[in-house]
Amino acid sequence: MQFILSSIDSWGQRLLFFIKYILETILLGYLAVRATFSDKTQGFRTIYSVVSSQVYFTGWQALPIVSVLAVASGAAIILQSTSQMNVLGGVEYIGEMMMIAVVRELSPLLTALIVIARSGTAVASEIGSMKVQKEVQALETMGIDPLSYIVFPRLAGGVISVVCLAFYYNLIAVVGGYLATIFFHQIDFYYYLNLILEAVSPEDIFLFLVKNIFSGAMIFIICCRQGLSLKVSSFEVPIVTTKAVMLSTQYIVLFHILVTGLFYLHRLNGLGVL
Amino acid sequence: MGFENSKLRTAVDRISLESVLLKDIKGQVCLVEPKFSFQAGKVYQLSGKLGFCSELMRMLALIKKPDEGELLINGESVFELTFNESIPYKLNIGYGFDTGGLINNKTIFENLMLPLEYHREITYDEACQVIDSYLELFSLSEYRDVRPALVPGFVRKLVCIIRSFIHQPEILILDGPTTAVDMDRSAILKREIKRQLDSGSLKFLIFSTSYEDGFRLWDPIKLSLFGESIVENNKKEAS
């Protein structure tokens, strides 16, 4: 009995920590945005340069790896789906398959995971090092709010990068899928493109934007928060970096599952099933 | 330059401590001060137990809140202000400490430019002029476009100090201003700060040093911190 009660207590505490962490992270994001736009003394030029650097490092430099993953996933989806559909009929549903598998699910998730691995770690360790070397303290003494100089540019640059990267992922996955059809099924390019375009709906675009904007925001706010939480010494830098990666991954995956679940509940509701 | 015309700052007339209890990160009591005022136009040299002076200076630079009590500037409790509300005071405070927290991915020039460019109290061209004149004064021009990791320690230290007074604050707080700096450049630094004191642009100068009599040029009032209230050594010697 004691064991059951302590297990419930333990899970309850984890759930409370989870909710508290989400709320505090959202609050940090809000404070960063508010600090940036309410600070009348600041020069946007300095913040703009940090945003553009972030977009370059997070977005532009990730293009090669995103291209590889996108081609591979697009080709795999098309190969698997067309090989089954050729037998059963329904090749015209290729577009739907690409939408469902790639645009709605794979591209937001895999893009987020790539960004966490590449940029999330870099941001957390960079900000952690800044904290250790008292650069954050120096900014405060100069009247520069760390939230507007450090957090906001990374948040803005991160959101822009993730959305653009995910869009790029979709384009390359479509190309990858077509390359697979050339070698194995000889589907006409315009027919293939038409199937893809016909499958795009406003809901897909909405889902795409919600997932990617949230992913970009959460990754960078969590990583900035972990970096800024460093207290004592440089030995904590790898600890906060690892924690940033783990927490970002958990929250992104859970959010994606939640959004997908809600989307399909809404669909079922619309069909009158629920 | 345009700092005296800046509308972003609030002029500072009085700095006082009221019922302040200050502890360091280990929980050790650094200061218990019922009432103390820093006088405009005076220079204060802090000494005492290792680390205690730094904690007081961090509080005066508005980056560490006292555990109890208030820091009043112009009669206003500054730690009750939001970050934005405290900016008019922060723009009038310069704080040089340790290795100063130079931003590692910026060059020496960009580090000195950061506060000037961010707050835009003067134009970019004026800022460049100010920075280049100080680099020339301290013979640091060759390090202008070099990152902090690649410059000698004394250069990093000097740049931190220069960054603290480059925007002509009315309050200047320096933690070990001449540590690791050679004698020639130390002398230039002391003369430059003396010039700012004499011109009236610098009203409050508070510094700590391990060189007891190395700062006679500034004619400082000596204060001691040993975990209790601030002791003015000049008064103690006189009594």
Query: How many β-strand stretches of chain A?
Result: 0
Task: List low-pLDDT spans of chain B.
Answer: none
Mean pLDDT score of chain A: 88
Q: Describe the largest sheet of chain B.
A: 6 strands, mixed
How much is the average pLDDT of chain B?
Answer: 89
Largest sheet of chain A: none
* First-last Cα distance of chain A: 39 Å
Secondary-structure class of chain A: mainly alpha
| Total beta-strand segments of chain B | 10
Q: Which pair of chains forms the biggest interface, and how many residues does each contribute?
A: A-B, 25 and 28 residues
Approximately how much beta-strand content do the residues of chain B carry? 15-25%
Secondary-structure element pattern of chain B, one letter each:
EEEHEEHEHHHEHEEEH
Strand content of chain A: under 5%
Order of helices and strands of chain A: HHHHHHHHH
Helix content of chain A: over 70%
Supply the number of helical segments of chain A.
9
Contiguous uncertain segments of 5+ residues of chain A: none
Secondary structure elements and their pairing?
The complex is a heterodimer of chains A (274) and B (239).
Chain A: H1 2-38, H2 44-58, H3 63-88, H4 94-132, H5 135-141, H6 146-184, H7 189-199, H8 202-228, H9 237-271
Chain B: E1 15-23, E2 29-38, E3 43-48, H1 52-60, E4 68-73, E5 76-77, H2 83-90, E6 93-96, H3 108-119, H4 124-137, H5 153-165, E7 171-175, H6 183-199, E8 204-208, E9 221-225, E10 231-232, H7 233-238
Parallel strand pairs in B: 3-8, 3-9, 6-7, 7-8
Antiparallel strand pairs in B: 1-2, 1-4, 4-5, 9-10
